[in-house]
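Standup notes
- DV: blocked on the single-chain target, sequence here:
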Amino acid sequence: MAALLSALLLRSKKRFAVLVIALLLGATIMSIRIAALQSSAITRYTGSLTSVELQVTTDPNRVVPKVFGTSFAPTSYSFMGQALLVDNKYRMRIPVRVIVSNRSVEGLLPGQKIRVQAKVLVSKERRVAALLIVSKRVQVMTSASSWARGLADIRLGLRGA
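- DV (later): unblocked, structure below
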């Protein structure tokens, strides 16, 4: 009986050690990622308007309009993207949140490349390097692949179900 109890405790100690090591490793990796996002070249443009070429990574979703006094704010769309080229100088592949205040993003699919004139802001989201606010029409640079269109049809069907 004592041998069984000691075997269980020893096994539990090993599991606990593995759990602690996994938590420390995960925390270290996330700290490095957050530091890399905060020190990327796009943060140099915080508060300014600049040209950004990016690849769409999520479907643009309509944001629920907010009420200001007696009127609604204009409809806007939000999606994630990978910033590829900032100010025609810095090549990168860094995640950004994009908010567009016009309908020019309707029909965009993940994988498409677009170019925007955006105001770069600090984001509250830890998983992105910046928040891009776009008020002008987006310039679509590539069309969606047949795979992306097929997957979009499936997602649309699932939403309608």
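- Follow-up: Strands lie at 49-56, 61-63, 67-68, 71-72, 76-86, 90-100, 113-121, 130-134, 139-140.
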